[in-house]
Design brief:
With 139 residues, the chain is mainly α. Helices cover 73% and strands 0% of the residues. 9% of the residues are buried.
Length: 139
């Protein structure tokens, strides 16, 4: 089963949880700096023209703020839901995830187990968070 990134994003943004404004501002600074760097690089390589990257970023301010809020808020929401909901991850689910990774990576389950542990325990958090996302999108 999967979930919709769009629905998950909407769920997180609507979730009632305190988000430290300082963290949002720091994330916004990082996002803007990364985007400005990419614009300058694209300009230098001739891929795109960005004569006034700061102005372009200012025009995208609302979207950038929303992206920063999401990046800061998502782990808080996942942590809160993990505490509130009792989602367990079975060995069968871990095995299925390990097999899926092996297929995607054109690898073997043994190679995946060497990376994530013989019991695939290092996949447990990812599987649990995906289950939470699926549950949240169904609400």
């Amino acid at each position: 089963m999967s979930y919709s990134e769009e629905a998950w994003r909407a769920y997180v943004l609507a979730y009632d949880i305190e988000v430290p404004q300082e963290d949002v501002e720091e994330e916004l600074y990082r996002v803007r700096a990364d985007m400005k760097h990419r614009m300058i690089y694209a300009q230098m390589t001739g891929a795109e023209t960005h004569l006034f990257p700061d102005m372009e970023l200012e025009e995208q301010k609302d979207a950038l703020v929303e992206a920063a809020v999401f990046e800061v808020k998502e782990p808080l929401v996942l942590k809160d839901l993990t505490k509130k909901l009792d989602f367990t991850v079975t060995p069968e689910e871990l095995l299925a995830e390990g097999e899926a990774i092996a297929r995607r990576q054109n690898s073997t389950l043994d190679e995946v187990k060497r990376f994530f542990g013989q019991d695939l325990a290092f996949l447990e958090r990812d599987v649990r968070e995906r289950k939470i996302r699926i549950w949240a999108c169904a609400q």
